[in-house]
Amino acid sequence: MTRPVDTSRPASVKEWRLNLYLSEHDPDTTARIVLDTGDNVLESCAEARRSPYDPDVPEIGDELAAGRALIALGRALMRAASGDIEAVGAPEATSSAPLWTSGE
């Protein structure tokens, strides 16, 4: 049986702002992401470099650099959450796959 919706408690809605900046200086493309959560600001950067033997297709560099920066940002968020979990004394759930490498 479905329970009635509790209308006495307002829904919790948050908005995080993410800005992605791309700059191209052939053969390099750089992506910089700034995430503003309202409480914290996280940044990540990544690059893509076109081989001199590859055709000049700027969209590919944009996609690679942005994708790499988004992955780095996701890993930074996971590290932040892990630190917050540890700070409140809660046991962290274990994952079968590493979420980041020691070099990041």
Provide an overview of this structure:
By secondary structure, this protein is an alpha+beta fold. The chain contains one helix and three strands. The protein has one helix at 58-87, and strands at residues 17-25, 28-36, 41-49. It starts with 16 loop residues before the first strand and ends in a 17-residue tail after the last helix.
Distance between the termini: 48 Å
| SS elements, strand count | 3
User: Which architecture name of one domain does CATH use?
Assistant: 2-Layer Sandwich
CATH-assigned fold name of one domain? Double Stranded RNA Binding Domain
Briefly note the structural class of the backbone.
alpha+beta
- Estimated share of beta-strand residues: 25-35%
Could you say which overall geometry the principal axes of the C-alpha atoms support?
elongated
What average pLDDT do the residues reach? 87
Sequence of strands across the biggest β-sheet: 1-2-3
The CATH homologous superfamily of one domain is termed Rv1738
Our Rg estimate from Cα atoms comes to 19 Å
CATH class of one domain: Alpha Beta
Biggest β-sheet strands, sense, barrel: 3 strands, antiparallel
* Count of DSSP-assigned helices: 1
